[in-house]
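Final report, closing paragraph on structural work. Over the funding period we assembled a curated collection of sequence-structure pairs, and we close with a single example.
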Amino acid sequence: MKSSAETTAAATSRRRFIAWAGTVVTARFPAVLTAVLASVYPALLLAQTDQSASGAKESPLLTAAKKAQEVIDKEEKAEQEAAMKHIAANTNREDMIRIPMRDGLRLSATLIFPKNRQNLPTILVFNPYNTERMIKDEISHIRLFTDNGYAIAFVNSRGRYFSEGTYTFLGGSGNDGYDTIDWLSKQSWSNGKVGTIGCSSSAEEQHKMNAMQHPALAAAVPMGSGAGIGKVGPYNEMGNFYRGGVIQNVWFAWYPSHGYKYKPSFPAGLTRTDMLRLSQLWNLEPELKAKTNLLDKAIWTLPIKDVLTAIDAAPSDLDQFVTWQPNDPRWKLVEFGGEGDPSGAPALYINSWYDLSIGPNLAMYEYQSKNAANETARNNVFMIIGPTLHCGQGSEREHTYVGERDVGDARFDYNGFILRWYDHWLKGVDNGVTKEPKVHAYLMGANAWRSYDRWPPASRPITYYLDSDGDANTRNGNGRLTLTRPGTETVDRYTYDPREPTPTVGGQVCCFAAAQGGSFDQSAVEQRPDVLVYTSSELTKPLEVTGPINVTLYLSSDVTDTDLMVKLIDVGPDGLGFNLDEGVMRVRWREGFDKPVFMTPNAVYKVDFPPLVTSNRFGAGHRIRIAVSSSSFPEFERNLNTGGRNFDEKDGIVAHNSIHHAAAYPSHIVLPVVRASASSARISP
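Its predicted structure, as stored:
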């Protein structure tokens, strides 16, 4: 069937979906998900407007979340303005510092010092972003560090802004990072020690940098990074480009905005004075930018490789990456630290339960705890996991909302912990930070911090089996989760049409306006017939689930390849079901990522997912639910079901998929249940 976004059939499909979504959302949950779906399907904005005009009330959940965010925004603006004034009065700043690399190119740096510029440890933020914007975003850290006797260096990676060379994703994070640390540690004002910090890409730069094992790198703090090319524990995601072999569409927003390869440049050899004068006229921020505001429509473009053309994006690595399969050997050229890159310095990982890279990040923590390059590094791998979105740490309040879900008072003194971390490793202060529990993780549902001496914490597995009477479609079907393996074979069938994909409603989504991340009530999307819903009976006592969650499904289909999506959901006594994590698997990669193995139509295959991960207390009276489908769009690319390369295809076919559950086909989910006594409750360090 034709599935190009340009075809009349596709337009008709979208209109049918919009009509369905508007009806369900308006009738069942007025405005609960309208805002979310409208970001993907703009026609829903009209339904939302009509609904407002008719006097329908907005969901109390969404209203509360919006009000909480307004308060946070106001507080953060006031804090930012106060910090900017303080820094202007109490620091010195030097721009256009040129740091030489081993190949003769120079990186551009901005250095900020306290007034007393003697014997200073340095905090390095190595990043591809606009420096003025970075300083604004990191203003609380700048104040924290300069008030406490640190210099801070913002260094643009190779090819970005005033740094020389051509930008490639994480290109130079190894050698360039090493050379930057070497230069900083040898300055007359330096005490010879450097620490690294940063979130997102500026965290990913740290992995390879730490693996270079420069003796002056004393400690690292990667926050909200991705993790690794190739295998990282049970994951193989090529630096979070894929999840389960499925492209994460966030990259169609990130690369056009932050990862373009080429820019205007000035002649080599210009002095710092020349560059300072030139920077008063040009900041090298693009005047004309890619039309990422059109992604809500452009993301429907097929073949998917043409999305970048549809938004007028500049050339970037994404032009090639989107054409590489997970087993393409060229991925190994990307300098994204992972297994085989043991860290040389202690690391404090700061992660978020609703970040797109949470699974691999926890696997990276485990890997470095066992394989870091020296005993000091191995024994000093720590981690904090908060209940936020990507890079949301520090935004927690008395009522912390992640999407629609209020997860309680999740405040944590991140800055206090980070300062103690650096004071110990960069100044030699004996402040007890290394005696802290190795892991602080927020337990949603209980709405409290927990501490563990290892990750994952000790747990006992509880297996829930999928079962039904053959009609698990929608939340009104008869799908169930049971503690006993089903004896009679039953099959649940659904149709996946890539022209009408199951929409994204929350999840581990980052940086992509077309899909909103976080925890949302799933009731509306669970009304779709292409979603299978399996729910446990009510719990008689609380169940504390923390750690990796293994899911196995038995699938048959009439196509040679399709995708499977599974969500773990906490259903409260009020019937609202909030997503915790989601798993994704392109079925051709079920036997490993070395080579694809296609299905024989209508044969039954075992599909193991890369582990989901969460920390959630299912309360008494709550129910555990999983929802199964074959798409979550636009968070993930659509599988066109042809068995082809997907990235260069316009025409998809409909898949008729079946989930089997029987003694011979025990589709199941394994939950890691932690005894409350196995952890200690903590509000903050």
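Residues 76 and 449 are 23 Å apart (CA to CA). The chain has two domains: 67-239+334-436, 459-682. We thank the funder for supporting this effort.
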